[in-house]
Amino acid sequence: xxxxxxxxxxxxxxxxxxxxxESPPWFTxxxxxxxxxxxxxxxxxxxxxxxxxxxxxxxRMHARLGDYIIQGVNGELYPCKPDIFLKTYEEx
Length: 92
Prior knowledge:
The chain is α+β, with helices and mostly antiparallel strands. It has one domain (11-88). The chain contains two helices and six strands; from the N terminus they run βαβββββα. The strands form two sheets. It has a three-stranded antiparallel sheet with strand order 1-5-6. The protein has a three-stranded antiparallel sheet with strand order 2-3-4, covered by helices on one side. 13% of the residues are buried.
């Protein structure tokens, strides 16, 4: 038998280090709840963000700048590489 994935709407955003960009409230709350950790490095006295670590249902996963962070239908979070995201999702 063949099966087709049911269409579902998810929330997502592209991870950036742009200080002007405001993360969605569900991501900010996940950071506060320690389900997401912002990955930073110290270079020449400057702190720079290079990604984040997300506690997913499958364990901890890493996202780099440019990756998409998706909130699933049950509120779960997971990262997705941009090429896969653009092949899989379209704006609702």
